[in-house]
Amino acid sequence: MRNTYGELINELKDNHSMVMMTRLSSKRGKKIEKILLDLNKDYLLDIDEDMKNAINKAIDKKTPELIIHNDEEQILIEPFFPEARLIIFGGGNISEHLVDLGAKIGFKVTVVDDRLSYANKERFPLATEVICESFENVFEQINVNQNDYVAIVTRGHKYDKECLRAVLNIKPEYLGMIGSKRRVQGIKDQFKEEGYSAELLDKICSPIGFRIGGITPLEIAISIISQIIAQKRLGISDMIACANAKKRTNYSDMDIKVLENLAKEDEERRAIVTVTSTKGSTPRGAGAKMIIWQNGKTLGSIGGGCSEGEVILAARDLIEEVEEGSFMTMQVDMTGDVAEDEGMVCGGIMNVLIEV
């Protein structure tokens, strides 16, 4: 039997952005069909306009879309992107903390420095990759792309400019550079004279990090990672604008460990739970997944507490009652008196899909 999740994991490891379409049909019982689309290829040629728009909406929002295709079929469109990579240029004291923070919130972290004493695994045990190479030549090895988050915190003005010049036109998801306002403005003025547009230069987060009064390397690293989280979650890196912004992405809601487990064959029957949409305040966003086995074992979470317990019971019942390839949908209501009585601290609604 085809393992679509195995194919998905392989494509993501090859740095391909993907869409998984799950057809939920009630024509002959409740049946499931999964289709993978590679966003790196011209995948939209044979898709009708309405479906194309729905796919593009999901990609744009970076969250799933559940659409009614016809009277007997719904389609869940889930965008998946390669694991977010944080690339840190410079292996100094700030980077020691920034690597740890980045790894702990789910980034694959790459550190680059041209000094062996500052670019080694002993110094950065949580880094995915540590590269000792000149800043001028390293870009042939790391292939920076638009999904990357880049922090330039080298030891000198010269190296900052080298790194910035190499990545600026790539337009990574986040680009921050350390330095005083005067020094940063000098670099921007020089780049403007070289032909870089003001719009492109305005996308540089510099001086890097949120203004929280940080002085120590750890405090500065916290200010930087806070700004990176804001860019990842809200799509903005301005501290004031964050106050009224709405959550826009589901990167960390999609636990890669859940995908990796689904990619493995498992003799024991299990259910896949996906949050398809949310309204109001909910513990997890659309795209969150968990696995529930027949014996009650679980992996991942859709928020914990009573709401998750309700879904677990429904999933275990479904495993026992129906054949493989079936599904059900349910709504978890965390609003009103019932939710308050049961101790649900959120006040929203989650719609979930349960597949077996």
Explain how this protein is built.
- This protein has 356 residues and is an alpha/beta fold.
- It folds into 3 domains: 4-80, no CATH class; 85-242, NAD(P)-binding Rossmann-like Domain (Rossmann fold); 256-355, no CATH class.
- Helix content is 34%, strand content 24%.
- The chain has 12 helices and 14 strands.
- It has helices at 4-13, 49-61, 93-104, 139-142, 157-167, 181-193, 198-202, 217-234, 239-242, 256-262, 305-321, 336-341, and strands spanning 18-25, 31-38, 65-70, 73-80, 85-89, 108-113, 129-132, 149-152, 174-177, 270-279, 289-293, 298-300, 327-333, 349-355.
- A 5-stranded parallel beta sheet has the order 7-6-5-8-9, sandwiched between helices. A 5-stranded antiparallel beta sheet has the order 12-11-10-14-13, sandwiched between helices. The chain has a 4-stranded antiparallel beta sheet with strand order 2-1-4-3, with helices on both faces.
- A hairpin with a 4-residue loop joins β11 (289-293) and β12 (298-300).
- The longest helix is centred in the middle third of the chain and has 18 residues, at 217-234.
- The protein is elongated, with a radius of gyration of 23 Å.
